[in-house]
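[09:14] KT: can someone run the structure on this one? pasting the chain below
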Amino acid sequence: MMCRQAGYQSRRYRDSPWRTFQELIEDNRTTLRQIEFRMSLPGLATTPKFLWSLVELCGHARSHLERMAFLGWADMPLLDMLMIWKAAQTQVKKFEFIRCEVVRGPLLEIYPASKLEIFPQFWCMGEDSDDTDEHMQDSLNDISLNNTAGNKVNEGDLTGMMPKRPRNMISKEAELSKLRRRCWAFVNSSVTLHPEVMWEEESLQHFEENDTVDEIGGFRPEYTLREGTVRDLILDEVRGIGPDLTIRLFISQAPKLQRLVWHLHRSTDFWMTANGGGLDITTTAMLLHPKFQDPATGRGIVGGQTCRRWPDLASVTITSTRGTGGISDIVLELLLENIGQEGTASCSPLRTLCLQGVGFGPKAFNSLRNREHFQVLVEVDLVRCINATSAMLEEILESCPRLEAIAGNVIRVDAIALGIPWACRNLKRWRIHIDSTQSTNEVSKGSPAMTLGSKGQQQVVFERLSALVSLEILDLDLVFPIRERGQSIQTLEWQLKRGLNLLATLTELETVRFLQTHSMNMSKSAVQWMMDHWPSLKLVEGRLGRTKADHKELSRLLSTRNIASQQ
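[09:31] RB: done, structure tokens below
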């Protein structure tokens, strides 16, 4: 555990971490600025005393805690994670969960006297459950049919389920009342406890039968979170909690966010399979979209939660290793729709949008356009978003006057040739492969792009690039495969006769990155021209020339001007 106090002096506690932490809270409650917990320290876990000390620290009237971070914690119960998050919401401005593992525990379901809401895919998560039991499966089928028809659930079905249910599944109204007395969370419905609320049995054991939350901790967090202080939320490879719960319980509950960094864990594959193919689009959309908000209560119809906007969200980073993403196009659309002030499209705060390997597509792109995010965007990264088309990248270049950095998979020369001059005259960093393959889908016969031909289209591309006079990094390498293995790659020919000489305006260029595995038909005269016309050039990466011998020769030529080359 590392803590920063007034004056930003660091102290590291190793011996008896719980006792030392308790003393730290008591002695430095008003001066503590940052607190960071690492699971590598023995003896410090999410015990009741530890949790309530955090609650008291965040709730103290004179506390100045600004940052709280958890790194590498394993087996953290979701209930404890939510408690910590709620406590942090009252005080800190920066909150981080990095490489932690959340234990969801068995799902709590409430069975009222009339209608039952059930999510069968979660029934087999308890230690004592057995999804191969035929009687259990029959009961599940009967319950599902009755629930769909709106009928009362057969009591015999529930009785048959009891031996197989998770240990702490609630089945009676009396148990719900007991939970309300013993647990910190506010249960908003007497009909159904929605699947986003789960508990570990041991998390409730420290409460006495007659205790109330107010008596224990002097702080009563509610299930529906209140307006918080968190401006900076970092969720980095948190394992054990799916994208749907992350949005519902964390992101949607931080309306004052200014920066969101969310790196999805690779176990997103599991959640997509377990939840029937991906993020729960319906319920998440109902949570985010304003039309599902009850004007009388200010709450959404999903889990009783409040529909949220992020009027100040300036930076969004969501990454996944999947390529198609655990975050769908429609959810990204709704996230982008809710950035900025409600009812206006002229005051978007969004400056940075980094969506790598997620399901960004036409719906999310339309939100970017319709909310006028284009007018203020400074950085756009759509690498590994397979549905981000050439036409989308071209429109971003044409429509974002403040753009300074852009990254994507590939843009076609015919899409550029069909477009208009780019608006991003202050662009400094380019990271998109340019594909010169003729597209029969995007270019019709007789169109201006087809009339120009391949050589004419390349000339147009060089003309567009020449207008980017502030460019410092020009990266033309492939970051995502666009061909099957063994197929040739067609790209710009890096030759003066094709229009390279038009790039004499790029005097600020410092780094050029070519294809690593394919030649761009670069000649010695082209390299000499680069050395003569780009005075700021420091690094050239990728394959130079047509052969290995050409590459070595051109590398030696660059070294005569102290320009480094790498492949």
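[09:33] KT: thanks! Residues 120-199 form one domain.
[09:34] RB: yep, looked fine to me
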